[in-house]
Write a structure and sequence with these properties.
- It is built from 5 helices and no strands.
- With about 150 residues, it is mainly alpha-helical.
- It has one domain.
- It is flat, with a radius of gyration of 21 Å.
- The chain starts with a helix and ends in an 8-residue tail after the last helix.
Length: about 150
């Protein structure tokens, strides 16, 4: 008798998990495809012109969301009425914006100084934008809803 109760609770949990994953499966497939295309563009911008400096762009776009993720939980107290934001949250947004601007500007500076070619610059910027856009879309798609609001 005890085994029948365990089996039914496991089957209920299994059905629930399958329903959750099937609803988000197309989003995961699309995001993984776009991420792969973004990394492919960045790697091709390095390999086709035998210069591996554009690979730094992929690193900056992968690291860009980290300050937002780290400082997002550092909200202010709910009783203050003067300022809606929080210092640490604003610092995280500022650092993220700085890293994103660096990700777009670095290939432009390298192309202007003729360290990389213009084709590598364009492919690197396009691939980096796809990588960063995928990370943003993934975090928005799978964001947990807060129960406290």
């Amino acid at each position: 008798m005890a085994h029948a109760g365990i089996k039914s609770s496991y089957s209920y949990l299994w059905d629930y998990l399958q329903g959750c994953t099937q609803a988000r499966l197309p989003a995961v497939i699309l995001l993984s495809f776009v991420l792969a295309v973004g990394f492919l563009l960045v790697i091709l911008s390095c390999a086709l012109w035998s210069n591996w400096l554009p690979l730094l762009v992929a690193l900056t776009f992968v690291l860009a969301p980290l300050p937002n993720a780290l400082f997002a939980r550092c909200g202010g107290d709910d009783f203050s009425t003067e300022y809606d934001g929080s210092g640490p949250v604003d610092l995280g947004r500022f650092i993220t914006a700085s890293v994103v601007v660096t990700g777009f500007a670095l290939p432009l500076v390298l192309a202007h100084s003729e360290v990389i070619t213009r084709g590598a610059c364009v492919m690197s910027i396009a691939g980096g934008a796809l990588v960063y856009g995928t990370i943003l879309a993934y975090s928005q798609t799978f964001k947990e809803e807060s129960d406290y609001e």
